[in-house]
Amino acid sequence: MTTAACALMAGPALAQGTAAAAAGQSGGLEEIVVTAQKREQNLQDVPVAVTALTADTLSNRGINDVVDITRAVPSLTITQTQSPNNSNIILRGIGTNAFSTGVESSVAVVVDDVSLLQQSQAFSGLTDIARVEVLRGPQGTLFGKSASAGVISITSQAPTRDMSAGLNAVATSDEEYRVDGYVSGSVNERIGVRFNAFYSTREGYIRNLATGNKLGGDESYGFRFRGDLEPTDRLTINLIASYSNSSSTPTRTWRYADPSARIFGGGGNPGVLVAPALVGQNVGPENFTVRQNVEGSVDSKQSMLVGKVTLDLGAASLMSITSHQDWKQAAGLDDGDYTDLAVVGRAEGMTSTSPFHARQFAQELRLVSTDKGPFSYLLGLYYANGRTDRYFDRLAVGPLRASWDSEAGTKTYAAFTQLSYDLTSTTHVDAGLRWNREKIHVRFANLLPPATNACYATCIGNAADNRATYKIALRQDIGRDAMLYASYATGYKGQGYDVSTGFTAARAANPVKPEYSRAYEIGLKSEFFDRHLQLNVTGFWTDYKNFQAQSAVLVDGTPQFQLSNVGKLRSKGVEVELSAKPAEGLRIDASAAYTDAKIRDFPNANCYVGQTVAQGCVDINPGPAVTMAQENLAGQRLANAPKFKYTVSANYTAPLSGGLDAFVQADWTHQSRVNFDLLGNPATVQQGHGILNGSIGIEESDSKAFRVSLFVNNLLDKAYASLIIQAQGEQQGLATQQFLPRNARRYGGIRARFRY
């Protein structure tokens, strides 16, 4: 397969438009340009397992946020919770099993070539997007230390040469109202601008029986401005400024509760019986009610400034990317017991608040050769300085009372390269190397009189680490329309601090070790029948060492649950992606992933609540004063890692009179059962399920100037949970809670799109 890289200076919108036009003339599938290797290339020429979603795909399938991407990428799952800072992005079964401002994510989220400091920042919605790329497997060579499981890369739309504008509107049966629009064009021959803004509001879908209010709703708004300048024929400057603001009222509902279940007992205190708070609720998998005396909220503000400067040197291009990001999350009082009962000595029950503030400055330099001749190269330097502050205050009487303030920071220095050489006209080799130096620090102050070993004044920790990651890939063209590849790559997730309640001087002095991965991958990328059929197949095998997760350990003779390097993992499987245009007006996209993601070594894991000796739980510190139990999780499947998941999307378009087309689209997603608890709690299992979405509408035939559709999501009204956990404060395994996403029930609506 011959390389069809686009010129580095061409904007993504222009490159995609040209490819799509060429495909339209032949009636075949369009070419998709990706930047998975930090240069613009045809998707089918890249020896990387990557799924690319174009702007039209995002719009037609109603993909409005990162969570929705899971409907198009089977290897991607997201553990969605009531708070973004506890949500987890998972690729091929691998995610982050510890939630702390001092721990890196396993899946990097990159927006306009800038890596987000905290994974929580990714859950702010998608608007005016040109392309989303999901790179599966370790991507440490080009994307750095926070990509040990993969990358989600999001590229916003660029200015158009001609004056254009667009407006999208959505109204739904569950009272969502959303509008976003853009204006784009050239000021003169050397200046282009684009402005996008959006506003969205949605009614809640969880009824609070204590107040009559609906929880689970949200409101958001934001904008993005981009200016492209071309001072000379060889110099291009891209300036991007974005801001978003969101507010939501999330909550969890009760999935199961034994009549005898009590919460927040212990130390001679029997706790409080839960049953009175459950009166009137439909406790179970379809429980869309709560009874809470405190209604929490999550408010976030995010801004980003990006400046890209590209200088054409003839044989190569020099690019500078400078960025600054700022993210604040303010959480109102959260009802930690999810009842209207008086618990932990307070009429309001246990409540907490936990604001965050993350900011980062980053600078990247790249020297990218043109694709003339058998040899090409990419050289780069990277620097980032990030810091996240978190304050936590939990209101309770007795040992559950907690209040602390923290700061976690990281400085990263890196140099990287990727080289490509054509051994013959059909055989190619790619090799990449990245050297990374990281410095981390933590400051933690317990604001209450401490227990043993706690930091009542201030604990400070500093650490540094050097690491090299690399990749090599061999590509073999098979004729003009197929390519086989094999690759070996290493990944790296940096050391980190467990910034949470109970932080001690020992934690400050001993950060967890880095996490390493080794990935083997083989793949086929192919096209048939004059680009009317595309088939991509990937086989992968990835081993992880020093996996970072919560475990039970003894510190200074005292048993504690904390973040540690506790085991080895292996993720292996097969992924298949198929796109076809078998008949005039008909397009079918299907993809499937078989993932066998299991723990190989985890000897000192926590026992799940209620686990018995017969179920593998062992007391490691017997005695009258303190008891600590552990289990060995070797052979356990990873949390929220479905063994099999597939998606099928079909679209049929037929011409009408008056220059209009009618279309119908259906999307089906199915996944096998998952356990949301890494410890294997049988009470936190979500059974396999399928979700069907459908739409029907009309659009303008040629320019696609307008499109109107009626749609129904979750047509079969299948309830499912995106998180199931042991109930807060319940210590016998007699109750569970769940987070039900908005898409866990059927709703319909109308979408309208207008372009000029």
Automatic annotation (TrEMBL):
Domain of life assignment: Bacteria
Keyword match tRNA processing: no
Similarity comment: Belongs to the TonB-dependent receptor family.
Organism taxonomic ancestry: Bacteria, Pseudomonadati, Pseudomonadota, Alphaproteobacteria, Sphingomonadales
Compartments in which it is found: Cell outer membrane
SUPFAM superfamilies reported in the protein's UniProt record: Porins
Protein name: Iron complex outermembrane receptor protein
Biological process annotations from GO: iron ion transport
TonB-dependent receptor-like beta-barrel domain boundaries: 181-715
Domain TonB-dependent receptor plug: 43-151
Organism: Sphingobium jiangsuense
Its membrane topology: Multi-pass membrane protein
Gene Ontology CC annotation, any one: cell outer membrane
Position of the signal peptide: 1-15
CDD domains xrefs: ligand_gated_channel
Keywords for this protein: Cell outer membrane, Ion transport, Iron, Iron transport, Membrane, Receptor, Signal, TonB box, Transmembrane, Transmembrane beta strand, Transport
InterPro entries associated with the record: Beta-barrel_TonB (IPR000531), Beta-barrel_TonB_sf (IPR036942), Plug_dom (IPR012910), TonB-dep_rcpt-like (IPR039426)
Keyword match Ion transport: yes
